[in-house]
Design a protein that fits this description.
Elements lengths: L19 H50 L15 E3 L14 H8 L17 H10 L56 E4 L21 E5 L1 E2 L39 E5 L4 E4 L38 E3 L18 E2 L1 E2 L10
Parallel strand pairs: 4-9
Antiparallel strand pairs: 1-7, 2-3, 2-8, 3-5, 5-6
């Protein structure tokens, strides 16, 4: 009888796993890829933010031109003050009540005692009020005043209080992100752009703040930085905004807007075009739009400040130095862009 022998058993093939060295190699490769890709992704995000910001500035410039078409060629501006000062931070008007319409609120800017009006009020105007006129007029939304790269502007302002069905008064300026919010520390956090200083010495809009502005006159840009010599708080990092590019050893962040990590700013000009600028010397005759003078008049070290030109940025500060003269038809070459924001280290930015 033939016996049936079973074939020899074959041991199951051993499972092969990753060795510790192989795992470390894989982890190292992944970490290297992340290190390579993250900066590229951050760079791509910033470029996208710049594009959105550029569109916002272009919309702002185009809106002021449209506004001027029905305002005798003058860009939107509330009455200034004859003392040559203005509130850097947002400020409202007195007499606001429930259910204010946009046109009625705009009229209040010219009649309220809380605004420097032609009747001789000692109050001072606010550059943000000028931009808020575009919101009241229905030409721009508050979202368009937010730069997506701003480290300070946390969200668009509200137009109405909206606290109850019967209490929907229009707000008088930027900064209100939640219904009923009145905390002064939130001032400006709903807005991240500056405009050319709009007033001449008599408190009226200057000729440059009109459709007469040339293609080389900057009208709007990313929020202007407060220069060295501001309010002097010890924790603040104040920008040396008037240093010449040829003398700058710090990096562009030292004199640029803080909206884009100090790399530069979007600037809108009188003919409606917007360009990305890596330094602030982009005004007429290469004037510095964030400072007090032109490149041609700066000293060798790039500093040309005078003590009497810089006073309390915490509440108000002087208007353009050259605007105190008799020539009201030329664009300002000093403190061109307002309001100004002080970016601080280890704390919230301050106006």
């Amino acid at each position: 009888m033939l016996s049936h022998k079973s074939p020899p058993s074959v041991p199951p093939q051993a499972r092969k796993g990753f060795t510790l060295i192989e795992l470390l190699v894989v982890i190292s490769i992944i970490a290297l890829l992340i290190a390579i890709l993250l900066p590229a992704l951050a760079r791509a995000k910033e470029l996208a933010n710049r594009a959105v910001c550029s569109a916002n500035v272009r919309s702002l410039v185009q809106s002021v031109v449209i506004y001027a078409q029905s305002n005798k060629g003058v860009f939107p501006t509330t009455p200034g003050n004859t003392s040559g000062t203005f509130y850097n931070a947002p400020t409202g008007v007195s007499g606001a009540s429930v259910n204010n319409s946009g046109p009625s609120m705009m009229q209040m800017y010219y009649t309220s005692s809380a605004v420097g009006n032609p009747a001789g009020s000692t109050a001072v105007a606010c550059p943000m009020q000028c931009m808020w006129l575009l919101v009241l007029n229905g030409q721009m939304t508050t979202k368009s005043f937010i730069c997506p790269s701003s480290p300070f502007s946390i969200g668009p302002s509200l137009e109405y209080t909206g606290s109850t069905a019967t209490d929907s008064a229009m707000y008088t300026c930027f900064s209100y992100m939640t219904p009923g919010q009145t905390n002064p520390d939130k001032n400006g956090q709903g807005e991240s752009y500056s405009i050319a200083y709009p007033w001449q010495a008599d408190g009226q809009p200057g000729a440059w703040w009109s459709t007469r502005a040339g293609s080389d006159v900057p009208l709007a840009c990313d929020i202007a930085p407060v220069p060295e010599g501001g309010n002097g708080a010890g924790t603040n990092i104040q920008r040396i905004t008037n240093i010449l590019p040829s003398a700058n050893t710090y990096g562009n962040y030292i004199y640029n807007s803080g909206n884009h990590n100090g790399d530069g700013q979007n600037v809108g000009f009188g003919d409606g075009h917007v360009s990305w600028e890596v330094n602030p010397y982009v005004g007429q005759n290469n004037d510095n739009i964030f400072c007090y003078d032109s490149a041609a008049n700066l000293g060798q070290n790039g500093l040309d400040f005078q003590a009497n030109e810089l006073t309390g940025y915490g509440g108000s500060h002087p208007g353009p130095y050259e605007l105190a003269g008799t020539d009201a038809n030329s664009p300002p070459y000093d403190i061109c862009m307002v309001p100004r924001l002080e970016f601080s280290k280890g704390g919230a930015p301050q106006w």
